[in-house]
Structures are given as structure tokens and as C-alpha cells.
């Protein structure tokens, strides 16, 4: 399972979306490509694809959008439909467990319609194989009957555009991946881009925020617009209750301190993992299960929820013998790094390469 799929939605800095997020995102989503912030390369390439399709008067090639959740894949699918002035049908891979489920959806599409298939890598294999023919030949074979008497009835489909979204492009089989004419990989946002997202969302939510306040929220948002919007709503609540409703840097910092989100975007679980690794195990190496017991969490929770961001931030490293903290982790928690701690100034050169197999506990 992907770390993104297992991320609990009740984490303030989790990338998964709950019902409240989805409702707010619907109101905050940009409607056109020119309004979409960030993802410059993907926007430029996608704009060319759509403009060329409009000039030809034909449906554009199928589009695959990959990358972590919360970066705008669903938003881009809706923008594609809006730019083509076409209706959009939305479903997801887990909802399509049988080929008949997919056949029912495909047979009801209209010409030029956009079909958005979220989490496409989680679709069942029989439905996946049916999708091959639908994407390439705009045709599906519907099986009627069972056993020797079963017959395949070909069903012609109107030209449509499939927009697939996945957090794990590597799980897509090559035959499916190769049928997409355009593939866009969504990258994490830079803080300056997230500041623009925060300012835009604040205007739509009728929240007064100054540049320093937006920068404070953006810097703690883990490079993800969904998290930035969620933090903005929580800071807005604090500003309205404890202040005059105006968000500046000080108010934003105070509010996020209440919600235990620090200046690098780490929450309680992230800091608990680092704190145990540093204080209890001297920076490691330590086995995953031992570390999980120390923080009172399941090993899967530590590995799939906390570790990906800590590794991306350069605060934790995985080695064959276990997890080790980096110099940045000691500095972030304000602790003095022992000279011979992993990654320390007194560490033996090539120490990580010499570490043996990871202990089982």
C-alpha cells in the first residue's frame, strides 16, 4: 500500500482528503488552466495538448496524471473538461471491481466526454484489460452467457478522453501506461507557489491575511496545496476566536503551535519518531519495529505515514541495519549531536555502507 493511501485523514498535515476537505476544495478549485497555480511544466504541456485538440475538433489523447495526493490531479481533470467544454464523469479504481462495472460506465459516455478515473492503479485486472481496447479502439466486447455458449458482442463507443490519476505510476502495467498519449507528473510545490495558493484561497474564503502570514502557513504545508488550505482554515478559526480575524505571521505561528504543526510542517507523530530515535537510541541505527514500539504506534504507521516526509526532508535515513537520524534532525529538535552518532562529525567515513542487515526488532 502506498504511504499516501494509508495516511490518516484526521492528521492536519496528512495529504488524504476527508469529506470536509472535498467540500471546501470544490469551492476553491480553479476553473481554467490559466487560473491554476504551480506545476508550470505540466500546465504548459497540457495546454498544447488541449489547444491542438480544439483546433482539430477531436477528443485529445488520453491523459495520465501521477504524483502524491493533494497536488491538483482532480482539479486538472475538471479543468480539462472545462477547457474542452465537455461533461465529465468521475469514478475511481476501487469502485470498478468487475469488467461489467466498467462496461456500464463506458457504454453511457457521450461523444467527447471526459472520464476521470482516480486511483487507476487499484482497478481490477479484468476491468483493466477491457480498458485497453476501449482506449485504443473505442470498442468493448460484452460477454453474454457463460461457458461454451458464451458470445462476445462488440459495442462501439463514442470518442472520449480518459484522465487517469495515480499516486503510484509504477504499479500501472506497461500496456495500460503506454495507451496514454500524455503523462504529467505532479511535483511538490515551492513555498512561493504555496503562498499564492494561500492568498487565492484566503480571498475566496473572505479571510484577511498579510504576506508574512501567508508565508508562515505555506512554509508548514509540506509542499501540498491541500494541506495549505487546511492549515489556512484552522488559522482562520484561531484568528477569529483569539484575535480580530486578521492573519499575520504571529497569529499564524500561534495557531499552528496550538495544532502542533512546527515550522517545518512536522506534527506530533513526526516529532515523536525523531525524539525517540535521538533520545532513546542515540540517533540509531534502530529497527523499525523497535522504533514503532517506542512511540506507541504500529510499525506500518511509522513506515508509511511518518517516514516518507522525514526522509524527504533529510531528517531520517533508512539503512540496511535500521533507521538513523541525520545531523539536520538533531538540529531541528535543538539537541547536541554526539560526535560518533550516525552522520556526526566523529562518525567513521563510509559508516552507513558498513552497516549490516537490519535487525528484526
UniProtKB/TrEMBL annotation:
Molecular function GO terms recorded: ATP binding; ATP hydrolysis activity; four-way junction DNA binding; four-way junction helicase activity
Cross-referenced SMART domains: AAA (SM00382)
Keyword Nucleotide-binding attached: yes
Binding positions for ATP per the UniProt entry: 28-29, 70, 73-75, 136-138, 179, 189, 226
Region annotation (Large ATPase domain (RuvB-L)) ranges: 9-189
GO cellular component: cytoplasm; Holliday junction resolvase complex
Chain segments carrying region Small ATPAse domain (RuvB-S): 190-260
Domain AAA+ ATPase per the UniProt entry, residue ranges: 59-192
Reactions that this protein is recorded to catalyse: ATP + H2O = ADP + phosphate + H(+)
Region named Head domain (RuvB-H): 263-361
Subcellular location: Cytoplasm
Binding-site residues, DNA: 318, 323
Sequence segments annotated as region (Disordered): 335-361
GO biological process per UniProt: DNA recombination; DNA repair
One Pfam entry name: RuvB_N
Function: The RuvA-RuvB-RuvC complex processes Holliday junction (HJ) DNA during genetic recombination and DNA repair, while the RuvA-RuvB complex plays an important role in the rescue of blocked DNA replication forks via replication fork reversal (RFR). RuvA specifically binds to HJ cruciform DNA, conferring on it an open structure. The RuvB hexamer acts as an ATP-dependent pump, pulling dsDNA into and through the RuvAB complex. RuvB forms 2 homohexamers on either side of HJ DNA bound by 1 or 2 RuvA tetramers; 4 subunits per hexamer contact DNA at a time.
Family per similarity comment: Belongs to the RuvB family.
Quaternary structure (record): Homohexamer. Forms an RuvA(8)-RuvB(12)-Holliday junction (HJ) complex. HJ DNA is sandwiched between 2 RuvA tetramers; dsDNA enters through RuvA and exits via RuvB. An RuvB hexamer assembles on each DNA strand where it exits the tetramer. Each RuvB hexamer is contacted by two RuvA subunits (via domain III) on 2 adjacent RuvB subunits; this complex drives branch migration. In the full resolvosome a probable DNA-RuvA(4)-RuvB(12)-RuvC(2) complex forms which resolves the HJ.
This protein's domain notes: Has 3 domains, the large (RuvB-L) and small ATPase (RuvB-S) domains and the C-terminal head (RuvB-H) domain. The head domain binds DNA, while the ATPase domains jointly bind ATP, ADP or are empty depending on the state of the subunit in the translocation cycle. During a single DNA translocation step the structure of each domain remains the same, but their relative positions change.
Protein name as catalogued: Holliday junction branch migration complex subunit RuvB
Species this protein is from: Kitasatospora viridis
Gene: ruvB
Amino acid at each position: 500500500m502506498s504511504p499516501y493511501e494509508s495516511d490518516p485523514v484526521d492528521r492536519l498535515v496528512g495529504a488524504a482528503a476527508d469529506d470536509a476537505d472535498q467540500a471546501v476544495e470544490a469551492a476553491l478549485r480553479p476553473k481554467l488552466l490559466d487560473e491554476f497555480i504551480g506545476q508550470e511544466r505540466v500546465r504548459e504541456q497540457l495546454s498544447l495538448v488541449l489547444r491542438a485538440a480544439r483546433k482539430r475538433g477531436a477528443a485529445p489523447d488520453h491523459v495520465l496524471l501521477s504524483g502524491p495526493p493533494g497536488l491538483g490531479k482532480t482539479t486538472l481533470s475538471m479543468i480539462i473538461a472545462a477547457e474542452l467544454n465537455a461533461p465529465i464523469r468521475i469514478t475511481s479504481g476501487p469502485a470498478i471491481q468487475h469488467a461489467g462495472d466498467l462496461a456500464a460506465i463506458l457504454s453511457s459516455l457521450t461523444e467527447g466526454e471526459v472520464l476521470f478515473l482516480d486511483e487507476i492503479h487499484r482497478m481490477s485486472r479484468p476491468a483493466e484489460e477491457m480498458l485497453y481496447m476501449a482506449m485504443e479502439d473505442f470498442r468493448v466486447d460484452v460477454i453474454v452467457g457463460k461457458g461454451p455458449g458464451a458470445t462476445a458482442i462488440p459495442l462501439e463507443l463514442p470518442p472520449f478522453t480518459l484522465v487517469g490519476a495515480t499516486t503510484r505510476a509504477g504499479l500501472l502495467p506497461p500496456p495500460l501506461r503506454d495507451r496514454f498519449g500524455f503523462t504529467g507528473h505532479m511535483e511538490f510545490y515551492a513555498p512561493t507557489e504555496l503562498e499564492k495558493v494561500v492568498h487565492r484561497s484566503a480571498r475566496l474564503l473572505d479571510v484577511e491575511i498579510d504576506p508574512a502570514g501567508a508565508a508562515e502557513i505555506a512554509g508548514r504545508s509540506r509542499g501540498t496545496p491541500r494541506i495549505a488550505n487546511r492549515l489556512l482554515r484552522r488559522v482562520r478559526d484561531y484568528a477569529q476566536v483569539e484575535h480580530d480575524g486578521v492573519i499575520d505571521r504571529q497569529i499564524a505561528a500561534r495557531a499552528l503551535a496550538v495544532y502542533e504543526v512546527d515550522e517545518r510542517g512536522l506534527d506530533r507523530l513526526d516529532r515523536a519518531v525523531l525524539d525517540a530515535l535521538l533520545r532513546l537510541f542515540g540517533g540509531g541505527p534502530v529497527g523499525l519495529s523497535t522504533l514503532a514500539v517506542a512511540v506507541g504506534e504500529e510499525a506500518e504507521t511509522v513506515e508509511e505515514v511518518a517516514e516518507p516526509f522525514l526522509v524527504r526532508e533529510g531528517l531520517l535515513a533508512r539503512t540496511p541495519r535500521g533507521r538513523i537520524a541525520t545531523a539536520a534532525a538533531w538540529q531541528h529538535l535543538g539537541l547536541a549531536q554526539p560526535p560518533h552518532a550516525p552522520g556526526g562529525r566523529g562518525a567513521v567515513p563510509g559508516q552507513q555502507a558498513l552497516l549490516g542487515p537490519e535487525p528484526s526488532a
